[in-house]
Amino acid sequence: MRARSGLVAGAVLLLTACGGTVAGGDGGGGGGGGSTEPVRIGVITGLTGAYVQLGEEQRNGAELAVEQLGGRIGDRPIELVVRDDQLKPDVALREAQALVQEEQVDFLTGCVSAATTLAMNQIATQAGVPYLGACQTEQLNRPPNYDEELTYHLAPVPSQTTNAAAPFICSELGQSVFLLLPDYAFGYEQEAGYKTAVPEQQGCTIAGTAFFPLGTTDFNPYIPTIEGSGAQVLVFGGVGRDQVSFLRQAAQFGLTDRFRTFFTLEDLSFDQELGFDLIDGTWAMAAFWWNVDDEGVREYVEAYRETHGAPPGGYGVYTYNAVNLIAQQVEEGNDTPEAFREGMEGLEVSLGQGDMTIRACDHQALIPIYILEGLAADEAESRGGDAQFGYREVVATAPGTEEYAPTCEEVQSEFQRAG
Amino acid sequence: MTDLRATSASDGTPARAGAPAATVARTRGAGPARWTWGQLALYVVLAVVVMFTVPNPSLAIGMLVYGLWAAGLNLLVGYGGLVSFGHALPFAWGGYAAGLVLLHVSTSAWLAMGVAAVSMGLLSLAVGAVCLRRTEVYFSMLTLAFAQLGFFIALQWNSLTGGDDGLSGIPVSSLWLPGVTIELNALRDPLTFFVFTAVVVFVVFAALILYTESPMGRVLQAIRENEERARGCGYSTRLVQLVTFVVAGTVAGLAGGLFAMLNNFVGLQPYWLLSGVVLIMVILGGRASLFGPFLGAVVYLLLESTLSRSFASWQLIVGAVFVVCVLAFPQGLWGLVTQTLPGLVRRGRGTA
Amino acid sequence: MDQLVSQLLLGLVSGALLVLLALGLNLIFGLLEFINFSHGALYMVGAYLTSYLATATGSIWLALLVVPVVMAALGAALERTIIRPMYGRDQVDALLLTFGLTYVLIEGVRVIAGSGGRRVPSPGLLDFQVDLGIGRPLPAYLLFVVVVVGLVVGGLWLFLQRTNVGLVVRAGIRDHVMIRALGVRFDRYRTLVFAIGVAVAGIAGVLTGPITGVYPEMGADILILAFVVVVVGGMGSFWGAVLAGLLIGVLVSLTTLYASIYAGIVPFVLMILVMTFRPHGLLGAAT
User: Fold this and answer.
1) Mutating which of B43, B152, B168 best tests the A interface, going by the most A Cβ atoms within 10 A?
2) What is the Cα gyration radius of chain C?
3) Per residue in B231-246, is it b (16+ CB within 10 Å) or e — as a string?
4) String of DSSP letters for C21-64
5) Where does C8-122+137-277 sit in CATH, by number?
6) Distance CA B18, CA C251 (A)
7) Contact C227, C43 (CB under 8 A)
8) Subunit contact A22:B54, Cβ cutoff 8 A
9) Using the beta-carbon criterion (under 8 Å), do A144 and B59 form an inter-chain contact?
10) Topology given in CATH for the domain delimited by A31-156+289-367
11) Domain boundaries for CATH 3.40.50.2300 within chain A
């Protein structure tokens, strides 16, 4: 026993003497380096796993931004470190720890799922590194997650999108709405959003709500409930795989003929899996669409298309914006977290998503939300702008104003499920 | 049916050799008897190596935690012959228990660890009572069923566990020691946390070794060899297996609690996948000892962190390695070192 | 009432696919004495093959004929190479081996086909709805699935009960030592049964493709359900698998209608209950 404890003691001494690996490197990325020190930006996203296309877009978006900046901000080179979180919060956590402790990143961004964003945010704020969230969630801007020094949110909160969708749905699609939502935080957030926004529209009601477990591929059991509700509009809140499965089955049942179907989130990468046949005659909502008439968007889309051969979906623009925002602030000399914060609050800028404002009270990006109509293959060129990728056309736009976002008061309290 | 299977494969696992390596060696008057308590020294060496060489402190601490978890599982798998596909359940829920204590009750590390361990021991008692009514494959399937059940509950019980988003914002804990209270903040002071974890794991590891050497542990291994015969000798086999299940669950719960304290976060991932990971660690490292799974955990996590940077499909490699392990090296890495290599050396020297 | 009936029918459909998987698992377990953990991944491979074949040729009908054959060949190859060494060892080792195989298959598919899903074109011929007089039309394709599953179940039963090969298989399940003693080349039968099991999983994959699309993780969740079916029905029991599969399909479907948040838990609660009160499964025999 004595020999062993001696061993341990000796090891500890050795360590503190050499400044070994566990002992070395306390938490915290530095801000404010010398004038030629690299700016290290960490991107953690889902590069393997179910939504790999979205993760790759985020990586591509960040890399494109760095490339367009020439790899430098003034005299300082940009070091972009991209890591895979496999869509798992535990891995996101571990990678965030690595980026913050080993790589000593100055800024952190990226995420595909809300769960990973909260994990990353936790580490970043613990370590004093600004984090720019890149996926939709109500919870990043609110306690207990929001850190007013360090947390930023570049993707919309779900209530922004539901507030934007409700007027369109109720006036153009139908006055009785059925909600089919996934049974996890994103679904609950949509529920709260729709249940507030829909009744606010004159004469519009929610006919029913159903939740399906995450990862369901068999939606057949829900169809009788939907049919029985008597609704005119079916709102589907799932993403990716769920959406694809659902739409296939709904089409098989002829549901899409009897209901006007509306999707809370869409992405070009899933559109390609769905194909024109299934998209035609449906509606969707997105915070980004490649074929939008805005200078900043066009620039981004063209550059992306040149590099990758296809227009970007909706996820790459967040990291593209993040890198550009960081570059702008650092160039102006705001490279410490405090100065960054001062520069960001209230900022109005036009980047890959068009006109954008970073609200001061919760660092939420206010961006336009687009309502998209699905097109048939023969309309792709004329209405969609491209024979291959013209899946949808923008039929309504909600501008990026405070009107659609939760109020500064509302975000002071934790998110609550709809009663 | 079991009796009629061929026993010609000489892969070194205790099941084939007919007795745990330690006992066999003891009758030969040589080596592995040392390995029983020597495993503690091995652990210390491994911990020191990890401390020096792994650049990411959180990963290093994670290796110790996962190692403990895997060692506890091996009590069931290697020593008990009971393959559990649900060992993620006590680990994950141990994390929730510790996290909830720290969030709502107090930031005492002792309390968090204690509650994690005890609550998971009790849970394992209930789960084990049902699962152990059957053996072999049925047992495995039942553990899987309970894991899935636990997963769904964790997913649905949003207000308790945070659901899909996980339990975040867990405060940093403090360890009360006579004379001083140490704050355990892994991000700001990784060395302290590492030493703390290493000591806790050391103590529990010693307890596990004690268990395997105790009469209960011996009977457990006898049951693995031939349950009917053990029963015939008058041992209450079900009780022994249940106690082992509880011990393994308690250790897993403690490991999960430590993990929650490390990350200040408890995430949610499919339990059957996570159970598979810890099982891989056990098989990779070697079923024949308690140190083997430790080694397996370190190697697996090392592979994961290094390979995942360069290969998007690193899991393909891990899966292939695992398959090869089961096929050709069922004794695992540590078994390779302690049994196969000395065997080769001996054969080379021409001695029996 | 209409809702209930259509929910029941839908449950039978999803149950039918579970039945196919469970039957394959049961056959393999009965004769080869291990649970094939890679069954779900193989089902997924079958679905992917269907997707490729269907996109190349434009229809899934060819897939229905070709894929089972290819899967049988794959199954036979796997059995001869990596599964054979497991026979002398613990049941557990085969479980672990096939578990590792799952990883390899899923990741392999990811590498080859990408992590995103693939489309499987709907069979144009069946793109209509059938009115069964229950107030709500059902897609013809789903009825087709039930019919095909029925044929496969019937075919398997006939094979086991009415052919000589089937006779040997049944005898082997009962007592393989005796069979060997009687001079039967047992390893050939093992290869055959594994191949059949995998082929049936492949058929399930073919059928599922047009309903859900194909993606690498599709085998995982359904596999766990298939395990539940096997255990609830009684390991090694043919009709047990059929009964339990349909039962679980219907139960999940009905739970979805009335209390959808519990739908995921129902199969496991059922399994635990059955294990507690009827340890050998609904139709299983005490060995």
Assistant:
1) B168
2) 19
3) eeeebebbebbbbbbb
4) HHHHHHHHHHHH-S--TTHHHHHHHHHHHHHHHHHHHS-SHHHH
5) 1.10.3470
6) 46
7) no
8) yes
9) no
10) Rossmann fold (3.40.50)
11) 31-156+289-367, 158-286+368-412
Residue C199 in tokens: 């082929």
Does the domain made of A158-286+368-412 have the CATH classification 3.90.76.10? no
Rounded to 5 degrees, φ, ψ at B47 are -60, -40
Please list, in sequence order, all residues whose beta carbon lies within 8 angstroms of the beta carbon of residue C24, skipping any fewer than 6 positions away. Answer: C36, C39, C196, C197, C198, C199, C200, C201
* Closest chain B residue to A187, measured at CA: B164
**CB–CB contact A21 B188 (8 Å):** no
Q: How far apart are CA C167 and CA A251, in angstroms?
A: 45
- Beta carbons within 8 Å of A194's beta carbon, 6+ residues apart: A162, A165, A166, A177, A179, A206, A235
- C93:B8 CB<8 A: no
Count CB pairs under 8 A between chains A and C. Answer: 100
Burial class (CB in 10 A: 0-12, 13-18, 19+), B348: exposed
DSSP readout, B48-62?
Answer: HHHHHH-S-HHHHHH
> How does pLDDT run along chain C (287 residues), one tens digit per residue?
667 877 888 888 889 999 999 999 999 988 888 889 899 999 999 999 998 988 888 777 888 899 999 999 999 999 999 888 888 777 778 888 888 898 899 889 988 887 767 777 777 777 777 776 666 677 888 888 999 999 999 999 999 999 888 888 888 887 777 777 887 788 888 899 999 999 999 999 999 888 877 888 888 878 888 989 998 998 888 999 999 999 999 998 888 878 777 888 899 989 888 888 887 888 877 54
User: What is the Cα–Cα distance from A292 to C182, expressed in whole angstroms?
Assistant: 77
ipTM, 2 dp = 0.83
